């Protein structure tokens, strides 16, 4: 990083600090996303021609008031931050040394509207992934290799939508990749707005059945311990 970059970052911190103290504007979720992206960009290390390593464990420190606000959102916020950070890493060609872990922590030394990000590389075991679907604000973990979604009580996930068939679609998961298939439904299905018969299912894709939107996500499962000492928020309050 050059002298000008350092100067601009220092100026940004100073301006943000003055603004926060004057107007007491609280941190917004978008600012967390931008801060995490900047941390990856700043700490990116070129290991070889085809490997750029970035920190996989990130701790976001917030003022008590901002922390309370963000912690109230709970695991949904952590999941979104994880997905957006992974997406940025993929777009930039970055690689993680281990499972991506994002934490939130209260820091009494910070003023409202100010946040700080600490990060480090921690080598982890092979990453395991958990497929889930979000339907009408509720998250369902997909268990097993085949999950049927529909209106019927015999479906693995039942939706209250008269525009859907009793067994409308199925999602197949082999531990690494997913596939979605329409089960001959009366009104048909769509995947990201396109008619669906059978297709690979990518993370953050949207399946439409009747009036119901199903968002498919893949979340990392990590057995590694908390990399930073002290209580924090990681997929829920602890």
Determine the N-to-C terminus distance: 37 Å
CATH architecture designation of the largest domain: 2-Layer Sandwich
Percent of residues in β-strands: 25-35%
The pLDDT mean sits at 83
Give the H and E element order: HHEEEHHEEEEEEEEEEEEEE
Shape estimate: globular
Structural class: alpha+beta
Task: Please give the largest β-sheet.
Answer: 6 strands, antiparallel
CATH superfamily of the largest domain: FhaA, phosphopeptide-binding domain (DUF3662)
Number of helical stretches of at least 4 residues: 4
Global Rg: 21 Å
Helix content: 25-40%
Ranges where pLDDT stays below 50 over 5 or more residues in a row are: 17-23, 223-227
Integer count of domains: 2
Strand order of the largest sheet: 8-7-17-16-13-14
CATH topology of the largest domain: hypothetical protein PF0899 fold
Task: Tell me how many strands there are.
Answer: 17
Keywords: Phosphoprotein
Organism: Frigoribacterium faeni
Protein name: FHA domain-containing protein
Pfam family, one: FhaA_N
Sequence-ordered SSE layout with sheet pairings:
Elements: H1 3-23, H2 29-43, E1 45-48, E2 51-54, E3 57-62, H3 64-73, H4 75-92, E4 94-96, E5 101-106, E6 115-120, E7 128-135, E8 138-141, E9 146-150, E10 157-158, E11 169-173, E12 178-182, E13 189-191, E14 194-196, E15 198-201, E16 206-209, E17 212-221
Protein name: FHA domain-containing protein
Organism: Frigoribacterium faeni
Domain FHA: 147-196
